[in-house]
Design goal:
Helix content: 25-40%
Radius of gyration: 32 Å
Shape: globular
Number of strands: 34
Strand order of the largest sheet: 2-1-11-10-7-8
Strand content: 25-35%
């Protein structure tokens, strides 16, 4: 045994020597000094060694005039760089371009895990990766220019204490001077307002630059009201006082516009302070002079949207277009109340994100005088109607023949808005869109076709999932009005724990539905309670039941849950969930995940640290931070959607979504002849893919009967 251990240690030592040799060959420029001239000796000053508890030093790499690589290390909170001998890092005449280095040129700050370099008003400027800057984040391998002298920032466990190099009398010609325009885009990593760091230069021009930036300080988003500016040390939301105990910190991204001419951003600056859910309005302004004498003006905006109406696929479903129109018209009415016109409305100024639509790009907005408001606001309304018509038909120009292909209430709406042009205000348009939406969505008679399937899978001995499908259909005056409650619970905790938890949650939901919803429904469907309030209360009761059983049995039982209440009389579906069991809406065109997993990997995806593909194989993909039974109270996420005829609502445990991609689920469901066949095929496909967990699925299809 000792012989094998010695062989192993010897092998590791040899490998380490080879790796160090290869590393040094990669890091040092392979240009030797001239053969006839001996390389001058570089002597470090006498510096006390770093104490054992000191952090791993950062260092700069510089190349001397005779092509040798020198590393200058530092580990202080603040480190100065310059020509003067009292600097922590002295850039002297061994280095090309040292003449352009100021006596005290720049300062480096170690701020937690961040390394930030700041210009000390040097006459020749600070550059990062050849772009001039005033204050900049540093990352491994980035080039730093002190005037014409170039350093490379490194972070590693190698290096020495700061060096002062002896004068050898050798000189080489300085490199060509850097040329920075008087107003140029800042480099990646530049720090703006001591709060934002540039992560992408999205656009640059002679007088206007646009960046994507990241907040240097983490924040927490409130799940209750959506407020995103809560400091990480707060326990309650600043806006609504809801608990932030389950809100994970993250670094938000914003878009920042920068100009040297404040008039270019004057209108957007005046919009700061306005807020509406259907408008991504500017959120702040600041002015600073990062270097030189030119003051730069900034407008901070929400991060640029991913999808614009001008680039989305058309035509879209009429019901979705009407819903988007209501939001946009309401946002337009809000701007008009503050005497602001959009200027020129087109599809490039509308962002679409699933069921949500927002106004973007306020560069053409204007504050209008009272005598101009009626005409200018009416122009905004016509512009919005043109965008909605394009989304509904795929055509940019209105024609009565094309409009006639739409449902009659919608055709009448567009005739009034684009042909007669007699909407007097955005508020009037909101009411008209709501009325058309009600008419279009009004079902003649509907039915629910349901499939359900639960399987133990290939790797488990016990099925800890539980499934509930509970529906009732009443037909009166020849109109069918089904009401259904559907739920999938994925238990955790092993034998006599996970299966008990999931069954307890499902049974609690079923008893509450029968004693409350069903009685009210049979009495009068118009008196049904608010679905989101009822579903939250039902899941809270289920949580208390599981939590009580867990404490009584001293086990670690718990369960995820996803539940949907389908009310055809009101033409809506309310979905609540806790954990990583999911809900999807599927139709011929696409599959859309409605819920967001309460899991570690989902948070890493949201923070940009993981891709959905990587999440599927991540070793901690099963770690969740919200479930039933873990705490006395639970706050499920609640979402309300509209289910159109021939749409499918799919609820499933992670035994299905973890085995099959969304594209595969979509293909199988749409190819199946019935919801029950879809469930069976999905479970078979998940087992063929490995069946690593219990698999449960419900498919609900809304079918129009006439």
């Amino acid at each position: 045994m000792e012989k094998w251990l010695m062989v192993l240690v010897a092998g590791l030592l040899v490998a380490a020597v080879v790796l160090v040799y290869m590393w040094r060959r990669r890091r040092v420029r392979p240009i030797p000094p001239p053969a006839e001239v001996a390389a001058p000796e570089v002597k470090p000053a006498e510096v006390a060694p770093l104490p054992p508890s000191a952090p791993v030093p950062q260092f700069f790499e510089l190349t001397t005039a005779d092509h040798r690589l020198v590393r200058l290390a530092f580990n202080k909170t603040f480190t100065t760089l310059g020509r003067a001998p009292d600097n922590d890092i002295v850039v002297n005449d061994l280095f090309p371009g040292y003449e352009s280095v100021a006596d005290h040129h720049a300062r480096v700050e170690l701020r937690g895990d961040l390394v930030i370099i700041e210009d000390l008003n040097s006459p020749t400027g600070l550059f990062v990766n050849d772009r001039r800057t005033g204050k900049n984040l540093l990352r491994n391998g980035w080039r730093v220019g002190l005037g014409e002298a170039e350093l490379v920032f490194r972070t590693a466990g190698l290096g020495t204490a700061p060096l002062h190099l002896a004068d050898t009398g050798e000189r080489t010609a300085s490199p060509a001077p850097r040329q920075a325009p008087s107003f140029a885009a800042l480099p990646e990593g530049a720090v703006i307002g001591n709060q934002y760091v540039v992560i992408e230069i999205r656009h640059e021009s002679p007088h206007l630059n646009t960046y994507i930036v990241e907040n240097l300080s983490p924040v927490r988003r409130c799940a209750q009201c959506g407020y995103e500016e809560n400091p990480v040390d707060r326990n309650l939301c600043v806006n609504c006082s809801a608990s932030l105990s389950e809100a994970l910190p993250y670094y938000p991204h914003y878009q920042i516009k920068e100009t040297d001419d404040s008039s270019l951003l004057a209108v957007e600056s005046q919009l700061v302070g306005l807020a509406h859910p259907a408008a991504l309005l500017p959120r702040g302004v600041l002015d600073e002079t990062p270097y030189g004498e030119i003051e730069r003006h900034y407008v901070i905006e929400p991060d640029a949207p991913r999808w614009l109406a001008a680039t989305t696929r058309v035509p879209q479903k009429v019901t979705e277009v009407l819903a988007w129109g209501e939001q946009l018209a309401d946002g337009l009415a809000y701007l008009h109340q503050h005497h602001v016109t959009m200027g020129a409305v087109d599809a490039w100024r509308v962002a679409l994100d699933g069921p949500q639509a927002r106004w973007v790009d306020f560069t053409l907005c204007e504050h209008v005088q009272e005598d101009e408001r009626a005409v200018r606001f009416a122009g905004d309304v016509v512009g919005l109607m043109s965008v909605l018509y394009y989304l509904a038909t795929g055509q940019r120009d209105y024609t009565p023949q094309q409009a006639a292909t739409l449902p009659p209430p919608v055709a009448t709406l567009f005739e009034r808005g684009l042909h007669l042009k007699n909407f007097q205000s955005a508020s009037e348009l909101v009411a008209a869109l709501q009325a058309a939406s009600v008419e279009v969505r009004r079902p003649s008679s509907m039915d629910l076709r349901v499939g359900r399937y639960s399987d133990v899978g290939c790797m488990r001995a016990l099925n800890e999932d539980s499934v509930l499908t509970l529906e009732m259909t009443r037909i009166r005056r020849s109109i069918g009005e089904p009401l259904g409650l559907y739920a999938v619970a994925d238990g955790m905790g092993g034998h006599a724990a996970g299966d008990v938890a999931s069954a307890l949650a499902i049974d609690t939901l079923a008893r509450k539905a029968i004693s409350e919803l069903w009685v009210d429904y049979l009495t009068d469907s118009e008196t049904l309670p608010d679905a989101s309030v009822w579903l939250k209360a039902a899941i809270q009761e289920a949580n208390q039941a599981v939590f009580g059983r867990r404490r009584a049995s001293t086990s670690d039982m718990g369960t995820t849950i996803v539940a949907a209440l389908v009310c055809c009389s009101k033409n809506k579906v309310t979905i609540a969930h806790a954990g990583d069991s999911r809900a999807y809406v599927i139709n011929q065109a696409a599959i859309r995940q409605v819920t967001t997993d309460h899991s570690l990997v989902q948070r890493l995806i949201q923070l940009g640290q993981l891709t959905p593909e990587e999440a599927r194989t991540h070793p901690q993909r099963n770690v969740i931070y919200k479930n039933l039974g873990d705490k006395p109270r639970v706050e499920p996420d609640v979402t309300e959607i509209t289910l159109e005829p021939d749409d499918r609502l799919l609820l499933c445990s992670d035994g299905l979504s973890g085995m099959l991609s969304d594209a595969t689920i979509h293909r199988i469901v749409m190819a199946a002849g019935s919801p029950q066949e879809a469930c069976r095929r999905l479970v078979e496909a998940a087992n063929e893919a490995g069946g690593e967990d219990n698999i449960s699925v419900i498919v609900v299809q809304l079918e129009a009967l006439g």
